[in-house]
Design brief:
By secondary structure, the chain is α/β, with parallel strands linked by helices. It has a single domain (about 15-145, about 190-235), classed as Decaprenyl diphosphate synthase-like (Undecaprenyl pyrophosphate synthetase). About 45% of the residues lie in helices and about 15% in strands. It has a 6-stranded parallel beta sheet with strand order 3-4-2-1-5-6, with helices on both faces. Helix 5 links the parallel strand 3 (about 100-105) and strand 4 (about 135-140). The radius of gyration is 19 Å and the shape is globular. Bound molecules: 3-methylbut-3-enyl trihydrogen diphosphate (2 copies) and magnesium ion. The site of one 3-methylbut-3-enyl trihydrogen diphosphate has 11 residues, from strand 2.
Length: about 250
């Protein structure tokens, strides 16, 4: 029996884009009597592990929810700890990104992050911009509703400026105004920690994604858990509104 990684490698194709809602850091810490911040630190270790595991099986895009627009409402001390962890991890993870030829990107309202986070983030984005093996996108201060309303606002402005007509506003025009315009939609969305909701993540982009929910808390999530999700995905029939028979006979 091949191990899970070999099974994934033997597949004809893997999902091009995997998105993950990395949830459960707080509960992981609480179970051990630790401060929540320690859960987040262990969450960074899990992200390194999973990004490397994804790159090893040639997933092209990995997009992770690291901090939501609603997470600003957490206790000030926790927000501060998260930002500190973000700055120190960006510095530390450059080697992993370079070794695995991973390009870093960010989506969300990154201008609302503390200045040192922004400059660290921009530096790592710049230093890794030519890597072609995988794109790792951090969703930071990200919320779908904010993203969609900003897109609507920018399209409305273009109409006012005479740059486009109302009729030209269609699905493609809207998608082109989202932060994700340069990547394909996620094929697979994973959420950890036994929570079954989307929490304002990529709501437009996951319209046809396959969903996978794992009971594992994010700091416990292992490469094999990712591979298990990919193998499960491979058995799904993505019908995109058609019937199963249509897909099998290849008749449109
Ligand atoms: C996810 O873990 C990380 C962030 C939201 C920043 P949580 O901090 O939400 O962990 P739980 O859900 O409280 O266990
Ligand atoms: C979603 O997790 C955001 C991230 C994983 C960064 P939350 O823990 O904030 O989501 P809710 O509040 O339980 O829906
Ligand atoms: Mg949570």
């Amino acid at each position: 029996m091949l191990d899970l990684k070999e099974q994934v490698k033997a597949l004809k194709s893997v999902p091009k884009h995997v998105a993950i809602i990395m949830d459960g850091n707080g509960r992981w810490a609480k179970k051990r009597g630790y401060l929540r911040a320690l859960g987040h630190e262990n969450g960074v270790d899990a992200l390194r592990r999973i990004a490397t595991a994804a790159a090893e099986v040639n997933i092209e895009y990995l997009t992770v929810y690291a901090f939501s627009s609603e997470n600003w409402n957490r206790p000030k001390l926790e927000v501060k700890a998260l930002m500190t962890i973000l700055v120190s991890s960006l510095k530390k993870e450059l080697k992993t990104l370079n070794d695995n030829k991973i390009r870093l990107r960010a989506i969300g309202d990154t201008s609302s992050l503390p200045k040192d986070c922004q400059s660290e983030l921009n530096e790592v984005i710049e230093l890794t911009k030519d890597h072609k093996h995988m794109t790792l996108t951090l969703a930071l201060s990200y919320g779908s509703r904010a993203e969609l309303s900003a897109a609507a606002k920018s399209l409305a402005q273009e109409v006012l400026d005479g740059k486009r007509t109302v009729e030209s506003i269609d699905e493609d025009a809207l998608a082109a105004n989202l932060h994700t315009s340069e990547m394909p939609d996620p094929d697979l969305l994973i959420r950890t920690s036994n929570e079954f909701r989307i929490s304002n993540f990529l709501m437009w982009q996951i319209a046809y994604s396959e969903l996978f929910f794992s009971p594992k808390l994010w700091p416990d999530f292992q490469a094999d858990d990712l591979y298990e999700a990919v193998l499960d995905f491979q058995n799904r029939e993505r019908r995109f509104g058609k019937t199963s028979e249509q897909l099998k006979s290849n008749v449109s």
